[in-house]
Amino acid sequence: MKVRLALAAAVASLGLGLAAAEPAVSITPTKAAKSCSSRYTHAVLSWGHKCLAIGQYCKGHADREYHRYRFHCHEQDSRGSYHLTR
Asked: Largest Cα–Cα distance in the chain?
């Protein structure tokens, strides 16, 4: 009986010690996965995170996604490539 009581006390103290311990790695979901310099705007697009700036190549079919970040993808150059504008 004393052995069971001692074993139960040891398991209980071990369980309480683990429950009180802080996790080794803290994950914050609100922190951006990618940081951009001040010249760029961080965007979360359907194909991933991207740093946007005026003049960059863009996907014309995804113009609505760029609008969330106040960019437009309507302008084409002489080769037919789309570029971001404000």
From this structure: 88
Residue 75 neighbours by CB distance under 10 Å: 13
Q: In this structure, are residues 82 and 55 in contact, taking their beta carbons and an 8 Å threshold?
A: no
Domain count, the chain: 1
Task: Tell me which residue range forms the domain holding 58.
Answer: 2-85
pLDDT tens digit sequence for 50-65: 999 999 999 999 999 9
Burial 41-65 (b: 16+ CB within 10 A, else e): bebeeeeeebebeeeeebeeeeeeb
CA 49 to chain CA centroid, nearest Å = 8
When pLDDT is averaged across residues 41-55 and rounded to a whole number, the result is: 94
